[in-house]
Amino acid sequence: MSPMVATRTVRLSIVVPMLNEAAAIERTLGALAPLRARGVEVIVADGGSTDRSAALAAPLADAVIAAPRGRALQMNTGAAASHGAVILFLHADTALPNEADALIIEAMELRRAAWGRFDVTIEGRSPMLQVIAALMNQRSRLTGIATGDQAMFVERAAFFGLGGFPEQPLMEDIELSRRLKTCSAPICLTQRVTTSGRRWDTQGVWRTIFLMWTLRLRYWLGASADTLAKAYRQ
Fold first, then answer.
1. What's the pLDDT score for residue 5?
2. What's the rounded Cα separation, in Å, for the pair 24 and 48?
3. What is the pTM of this model?
4. Which ranges form a coiled coil (predicted)?
5. Dihedral sign (CA 35, 116, 96, 212)
C-alpha cells in the first residue's frame, strides 16, 4: 500500500468530466461551492462541448480544461492538472454529500486505504431506481468493484502509480477498481451521492438493466471494451 498523508495536510481535488452538460453543470458545480470554500479544488475536464457548458462551468470551478473526448481520457487529463493528494471523480449529473471532503479524509486515514467510493441513490421517476441503487451498493461491497456513479476517490500516488484510468471507451471504472484492489480494499462510505436517473427514465428501467448487466457480463467473460462500446451505442 502506498504511504498515506497526514490528516490536516490532505487536500482534495474533484475532477468532473463534461460533454454538453449545459442543463446540469451549474447545479453540480454550484453544490460544490462550500467544499471549494474549505480548500477543495474543482477541475472540469471538457471533452469538446458544443453548447454553453464551458462558459457556465468557468466561474464555478478552479479550472476548466480542454481534454480529448472520452470519459477515461478526460478524467486522466483532469487528474494530471489537479494538485490534491486525494482525487475524486464526479460525474456531471451527480451530487456529493455536503461533508464529502471530511468524510473522505477521515476514512482514508482511519482505514489506511488507498481508495474508496460512496453509496449511491438514483433520482428519477421510477420507484425501481431505489431498488437498483441498493443492489448496486450491495454488489460493490461484495465484489470490491466501484462504478463511476459512486464518486470514486483515490490517493494520488496510487492513481498515477497504476497509470490512471485505462484509456478504453467503456468499463474504465471497473478496470481501475480491479487494479486498485491490489493496493487495498475500497472504503465503502454509507453516505450517499445522488445521481441522475435520466438514462433509466429515457431508455426504460428494464431495458437499461438488461443492457448494463449484459455488457458487464460480457466484459467479465473477456469481451473488449471497444466491442462493448459499439454495442452500447447501438
1. 38
2. 16
3. 0.88
4. none
5. positive
Separation of alpha carbons 186 and 143, rounded Å: 10
Predicted confidence at residue 53, as pLDDT, reads 97
* Res 169: pLDDT: 83
Dihedral (CA of 147, 144, 110, 83) sign: negative
Query: How does pLDDT run across 125-180, given as a tens digit for each residue?
Result: 888 899 999 999 999 999 999 999 999 999 999 999 999 999 988 889 999 999 99
Residue 9 has pLDDT above 70, yes or no: no
> Which residues have C-beta within 8 Å of that of residue 136, sequence separation ≥ 6?
120, 147, 149, 150
Residue 9 grid coordinates: 495536510
What amino acid is encoded at 210 in this protein?
F
Structure confidence at residue 234 (pLDDT): 67
Block residue for cell numbers 468499463: 171
CATH number, domain 7-202: 3.90.550.10
Q: What is the DSSP string of the chain?
A: -PPPPPGGG--EEEEEEESS-TTTHHHHHHTTHHHHHTT-EEEEEES--SSSHHHHHGGGSSEEEE--SSHHHHHHHHHHH---SEEEE--TTEE--TTHHHHHHHHHHHHT-SEEEEEEEEESS-THHHHHHHHHHHHHHHH----GGG--EEEHHHHHHTTSS-S-SS-HHHHHHHHHTTT-PPEEEEEEEEEE-HHHHHH-HHHHHHHHHHHHHHHHTT--HHHHHHHHH-
